[in-house]
Specification:
The chain is built from eleven helices and 13 strands. It has 325 residues and is an alpha+beta fold. It has two domains: 8-136, 3-Layer(aba) Sandwich (Aminopeptidase), CATH 3.40.630; 145-305, Gcn5-related N-acetyltransferase (GNAT) (Aminopeptidase). Strands 1, 2, 3, 4, 5, 6, 7, 8, 9, 10, 11, 12 and 13 form a 13-stranded mixed β-sheet that branches. A hairpin with a 2-residue loop joins β9 and β10. α5 crosses α9. 42% of the residues are buried.
Length: 325
């Protein structure tokens, strides 16, 4: 029987039943590390103007649906993102209740509207929430590349072609980050990379530190270092949850590119994912025009995966944003 929209509560981290939320994330199709309370908890320390919020639909004494989000700013400029800096996000619906997803979303939207946001952005990676367009959300296309890790087992035996073996022969060793002091080298590499692209680094050093301290002890993250002669020349920050390992960010010293540290690091990411029993590797965003990046991903067996990012804006905020362009 159709029970109609469900009432959602808006909870901060201090009131959230973390075990109940974790169960919802793991028992929902498409649940990812970006849906976890651990990921949401990274934001306040590095970005004091961001605050995590969880919209939770409770039925029969359990969390049956929910949306993790980060709220930036206050009314009238409150903006809601689910979730920032990730290729995933969006509404969770417990397996077996997916047929009621739109009912849950109506209740969820009413809860979000209590925050009176001028902008709300929701990622729909698995294509289950196309009905957002009916509620004033505009869709834009995004793309990533995904590797089938079962297929990559055979590719790994040919990893000489990928450069990982050559990298090892040239003296590069990949190890997990064990000393917080090495994070300064990681951020140095990020700044070097971003200067080359003429852009600012998107997060402060404290965010990478919070990611490592907050997620790695729970088995949700690792930071891999490519080292040659005691010098850190590359790194990756990888995330894992359920059946997916995700390359979240990373950089290599362009002066050592011929040694192929990026290949060695990706091989280590794949090895970590296989050890955890993951079935796919998400290689992160593939923006238009990044032909070299796309070729690198395809060489590792990455298949293009398009998904939707849905945005709803207040009319006045949309007007102001248009004038700023």
């Amino acid at each position: 029987m159709d029970r109609g929209p469900v009432r959602f509560e808006l909870l901060g981290p201090e009131k959230l039943d973390r075990d109940g939320w974790e169960a919802l994330a793991r028992e929902s199709p498409g649940g990812t590390v970006y849906h976890t309370a651990d990921w949401a908890g990274l934001w306040p320390a590095a970005f004091p103007h961001f605050r995590p919020v969880f919209a939770v639909g409770v039925e029969d004494g359990r969390y049956q649906a929910g949306l993790p989000a980060v709220v930036r700013g206050r009314f009238p400029f409150a903006r809601i993102y689910s979730m920032p800096m990730g290729a995933y996000g969006g509404m969770l619906v417990r397996r077996g209740l997916v047929g009621r997803a739109e009912d849950y979303f109506e209740g969820l939207l009413r809860a979000l509207d209590r925050l009176r946001p001028c902008l709300a952005e929701i990622v729909d990676f698995d294509g289950r929430q196309g009905f957002l367009s009916k509620y004033g959300f505009a869709r834009r296309e995004a793309r990533t590349h995904v590797v089938d890790l079962e297929a990559s087992r055979s590719l790994s035996r040919q990893k000489t072609k990928r450069g990982a073996v050559q990298s090892a022969k040239r003296g590069i060793v990949v190890r997990d980050l064990a000393d917080e002091a090495d994070l300064s080298d990681c951020h140095r590499l990020l700044r070097q990379r971003d200067r080359g692209y003429g852009q600012a680094t998107k997060y402060p050093p404290g965010f990478l530190r919070q990611l490592w301290l907050g997620l790695a002890p729970r088995g949700l993250a690792r930071i891999g270092l490519a080292v040659r002669d005691s010098r850190i020349i590359g790194f990756t920050a990888d995330l894992a949850f359920g059946d997916t390992v995700t390359y979240w960010d990373g950089a290599s010293d362009p002066g050592f590119r011929r040694l192929r540290p990026a290949d060695a690091l990706i091989q280590a990411t794949i090895d970590w994912g296989l050890k955890l029993g993951c079935r796919r590797l998400n290689l992160g965003g593939s923006p238009p025009g990044a032909d070299g990046l796309v070729r690198f991903k395809e060489n590792w067996g990455g298949q293009a995966r398009d998904y939707g990012v849905y945005t709803r804006q207040a009319w006045w905020y949309k007007t102001i944003s248009g004038l700023r362009r």
